[in-house]
Predict the structure.
Amino acid sequence: QVQLQESGPGLVKPSQTLSLTCTVSGVSITTNNYYWIRQPPGKGLEWIGYIRPDGSTEYSPSLKSRTSISRDTSKNHFTLQLSSVTPEDTGVYYCLRVPEWGQGTQVTVSS
């Protein structure tokens, strides 16, 4: 059974870097694409980016300059870093491997 679990701080100060980890169980992260998606309050889902089986990445054009996705195959997890955050980056962040989703983690950007 494939499971994904997000972890990271729930509160980040403006201008800092948001860092989240998605720990995957039941399958190797070197298979399939693994995605980060978020949902701001009151808005729809927004794609952030993904990492391919070969470790290459693809990012949303609107977030590309601030986003980095990487992985640690020894720990079977992948991470999201979003720099220079503002309150507009507040939302629930999800990691997924189609069709499985993590439960999501709330991130609030506030001083």
Q: What stands out?
A: The chain is about 0% helix and 50% strand. The longest strand covers residues 18-25. The chain has a mean pLDDT of 97. The two ends are 39 Å apart (CA to CA).
